[in-house]
Design brief:
heterodimer, A: alpha+beta, ATP Synthase, domain 1, Single alpha-helices involved in coiled-coils or other helix-helix interfaces, five-stranded antiparallel sheet, 3 helices, B: alpha/beta, Helix Hairpins, Pyruvate Kinase, Chain: A, domain 1, 2 domains, five-stranded mixed sheet, 6 helices, 15% strand
Chain lengths: 143, 292
Amino acid sequence: MVDGPTLRVEVVTPDGQVYGDAVEMVVVPGVEGELGILKGHQPLVSLLAIGETRVRRADATVEYIATGIGYVQVLFDKVLVVVDHAELAGQIDAQRAEQARVRAEERLQVRDDPGARAEVDFFRAEQALKRAHNRLRVAARAR
Amino acid sequence: MASLQHIRRRIGSVQNTRKITKAMEMVATAKLRRAQQRILALRPYAIDMVEMMMDLAAYAEGTGGFDLLRTHAEERTAALVVMTGDSGLAGAFNANVLRMAIEFERELRGRDVATRLMVVGKKGIGTLRFRGYELHETWQGKSDRPAYGDAEAIARRLIELYVSDAVDRVHIVYNHFTSPLEQTVTHTELLPIKREELFDERRERKPVAYIYEPDASAIFERLLPAYLEIAIYRALLESSASEQGARMTAMRNASDNAEEMISSLTLALNRARQASITQQILEVVAGAEALG
């Protein structure tokens, strides 16, 4: 076999496969830090945190993907990323992400207001905020 | 006999109704197709996730206490998730699922189990409130296009209730999507998660020595909520597809009925017109005879 991309990567979410390609390197946001995966990597299963997944293709171009929580499985040069949501950097709507960030922050601001407390799902707002930050960061990286 | 003008007006009105039902039928058909696609899109994720959990379960065995797998000895309080739609005009879609929910609540009450109702969809919220039920939690505005985030939010509430011992079981009633023409109201238990669904003795341990980060049991525990989320998301999607299927059928029937009504009204109109022409001829003839 000649040199070249031999690492197969797939990113799977509840709304379908977001990315699938033969690549050179994959970097995923593991819960204990970033994990770089090259061809010939040991079989691995790791939890993933909300963050940025990077994929480097043979032609040295890089794809940035904003990924949510889930796991990564590496086996026989196949990298399977299974997460609750994922968006390619090029497809992120920065405006929408910004709106989501503002909305989540507004919701979190009423945290100390006992009247509004019951109405707001803080955990969800926090998650939304994290996701929005992540999307914005990844979108900015790709530019 | 109804006047010509009256019949014409009725035909016009029925025609307008048919236009609306036809349009609704087409919209429902399009939405149904989208909902079906989303059910299919979920499958790879669900399969990967559950496979991984089953792999991990072999290592997690014996490490014991997973809250979501632990059965509460007694069922004193139960959460009942009821999935309805946000809008009506979908045949018996909402009525069927609500009837089942009410029956089930009564059965639980008969066994001295207090029920906390968790209702998805405006129709269910409206009907159950009207009937005097106290709703523990409600979600609405999702039936058209449920997102995975909605399932995560519902799952998290249920987990909180279950883990804090506020409820001992979690049940769900929803419309299972059998085919576009058929929906079956289904009742299942969401929590505790059945051990046998994840721990399969016959399943071979993976001969591969994986590196686990963190350890297998910890990953297993962190992924467990996803099992519940997937079940809820699938129910949301199936309920949504069922709603569109039911609406499509209901609107098709309505259009057919309108069609039938138009043709019988047209017949009545033609008869009435003919009768009036005959009447006029008779009058002319009678007049001519009187003159002659």
